[in-house]
């Protein structure tokens, strides 16, 4: 079931008062390098440093008063945990965040600073889900999935909604693909508010489940999670996958070196702090230059929460 144009628009109106209207920047040099006209939507400059603030705000606002009183819970390696903690704080709701022991310490500390109650679990999806389920049972909190919840997906799509208001004649919008919430929300925005605007995902070769899922028509899983793009290790879900199948035109896979090179270019040339996951769609553009030559392209720079003591360059 694809949400209607009106529902997508309502999410935009709901989210707008609580988030930054992030800038859209371009670089003459990066245009020359890619052979395209590229507009970067800077969600690395969003509150808490990532687009995920949008989905968290939208999802909490859709809860009943009784649910808000009980609080919200999620499991996250970082960005959605931070987003939910800050969104909950801004809306006067308690947030419980289950984080794997492998999560970057900078992200764990950020969640605590935003008022989130952190539970550390073993770094497996099974352990994270079990800890979250325990909190739901004990506290009565509402579980919000980082990427496979329709209200989260609609919230994430508001970045593309803003981008299309600023650049209405984009021919492509490119996003990274992890759990699928951002690309599904972006595809909805492009479908209703773009003009023949195709949505293309970028995905690390090491965790290419979405690429395989789009080809096969079935949700796939990863055996490896060995990628520098730590935000893209999760897989698609049953809420976002139907939207992706219907509305996403392609997913391009990139190697680890290509991600690092693209990240370095954006740091050096645009003076923007982005995390590795954010560099993946630009890496995909550089990899498939011919496909995008002389096109107008929007790229969502998904986040800037990077561990400065552990840069790849």
Automatic annotation (TrEMBL):
Signal peptide from the UniProt entry: none
Keyword Transcription among record annotations: no
UniProt superkingdom: Bacteria
Stretches assigned to the Tryptophan synthase beta chain-like PALP domain: 17-303
Keywords: Pyridoxal phosphate
Membrane-spanning segments: none
Cofactor list: pyridoxal 5'-phosphate
CDD domains assigned: Thr-dehyd
UniProt xrefs under InterPro entries: TrpB-like_PALP (IPR001926), TrpB-like_PALP_sf (IPR036052)
PANTHER family: SERINE / THREONINE RACEMASE FAMILY MEMBER (PTHR43050), SERINE RACEMASE (PTHR43050:SF1)
Name of the protein described by the UniProt record: Pyridoxal-phosphate dependent enzyme
Protein species of origin: Arenibacter arenosicollis
